[in-house]
Design brief:
The chain is α/β, with parallel strands linked by helices. An eight-stranded mixed barrel has the order 1-2-4-5-6-7-8-9, surrounded by four helices. The protein is globular. The longest helix has 28 residues, at 9-36. Helix content is 50%, strand content 18%. The chain has helices spanning 9-36, 74-83, 87-107, 120-124, 128-139, 152-155, 159-171, 188-191, 203-207, 213-229, 241-250, 266-275; strands at 40-49, 55-65, 71-72, 114-117, 146-151, 175-181, 198-201, 232-235, 254-255. The chain has twelve helices and nine strands. Helix 3 runs parallel beside helix 5. It binds ligand C2E and magnesium ion (3 copies). One magnesium ion is lined by residues 59, 117, 149, 179.
């Protein structure tokens, strides 16, 4: 490990790498513990109808309540979980919480679909899909209230085997969203038979709406693909009234974003839905 220094900059580099490895190892251990101790909790971001502002559903997003008091967002630990073989456990845990929240909401008279994010690693792992379906069926919830999200870039990995699973879900009445759509280089050949019911326009295009011709055109194009091939389209990351107006003008019906609501703990999300029914 200790490279011979001799005052070479290379030695500093080694040191940094070692530090990063230790941080990663520490993070991984903490994440393992978090999974055991229910420190991973979901928050729910409302999805709305753009014109009326009414709630049309939610997305479940995982949060890590770290023992030191911080709340850690998934971009830090999802990639670690993915490379360390922990992601399936994490996603199954999130699914269980999603089902339980969905049941609570239903009992409180809020029958809105909730989506959950799923790594392609799960879907490529033998047995995961069957287990996922079994867990969903055991919940007894109407399948129309559940929606799986997979990112576009990931959905295109081993497209054939994943598409088969996604089609099964759609046939059962569940929703399937292609997340971060527009960033993953879907081939048009695949678009025509994309195994999905919803396209989620990636936030990077929404944030540049009105400022960039390219972003405007890409959003228009995705909306037209939706019309032509029968996908519902939802805009992610809407933060300003101007973006909302532009999306309405373009004929986009649904959105998610800080303009409407940040992701909320389940009880607050329920109250939000009741106030925006
Ligand atoms: P995503 O699925 O595309 O989720 C949208 C992300 O954008 C969320 O970040 C959300 O909090 C954030 N967001 C929503 N509205 C706005 C807005 O108006 N402005 C901005 N700047 N951001 C907004 P979050 O919760 O940090 O999640 C990041 C990513 O982590 C998610 O992207 C998803 O890919 C992944 N992820 C989250 N939960 C899970 C999970 O349970 N399993 C897996 N496999 N991945 C997850
Ligand atoms: Mg998502
Ligand atoms: Mg997204
Ligand atoms: Mg994302």
């Amino acid at each position: 490990v200790a490279a011979k220094r001799n005052g070479q900059p290379a030695a500093e580099y080694d040191h940094t790498q070692e530090q990063q490895m230790r941080n990663r190892y520490g993070l991984l251990n903490e994440l393992r513990q978090a999974l055991q101790s229910q420190a991973l909790q979901i928050v729910l971001q409302p999805k709305v109808e753009l014109v009326s502002g009414q709630a049309v559903g939610f997305e479940a997003l995982v949060r890590w309540q770290h023992p030191d008091g911080r709340v850690i967002t998934p971009d830090t630990f999802i990639p670690v979980a993915e490379t360390a073989g922990l992601i399936s456990k994490l996603d199954m845990n999130v699914l269980q919480q999603t089902l339980s929240v969905c049941r609570d909401f239903l009992q409180q008279g809020v029958a809105l679909p909730i989506s959950f994010n799923t790594s392609s690693i799960d879907l490529l792992q033998p047995g995961y899909f069957d287990e996922m379906l079994a867990v969903i069926r055991q919940s007894g919830l109407p399948l129309e209230l559940l929606e799986l999200e997979v990112t576009e870039s990931q959905a295109m990995v081993e497209y054939r085997s994943i598409a088969h699973q996604l089609r099964t879900l759609i046939a059962l009445g569940m929703g399937v969203s292609i997340d971060d759509f527009g960033t993953g280089y879907s081939s048009l050949a695949h678009i025509t038979d994309l195994a999905a019911s919803v396209l989620k326009i990636d936030r990077t295009f929404i944030s540049r709406l009105g400022e960039s011709d390219d972003a405007n055109h890409i959003v228009d194009m995705i909306l037209r693909l939706g019309d032509r091939f029968g996908f519902q389209v939802i805009a992610e990351g809407v933060e300003t009234e101007q973006q909302r107006q532009l999306l309405i003008e373009k004929g986009c019906r649904y959105a998610q974003g800080y303009l409407f609501s940040r992701p909320l703990p389940p009880e607050q999300a329920l109250a939000w839905a009741q106030a925006h029914a």
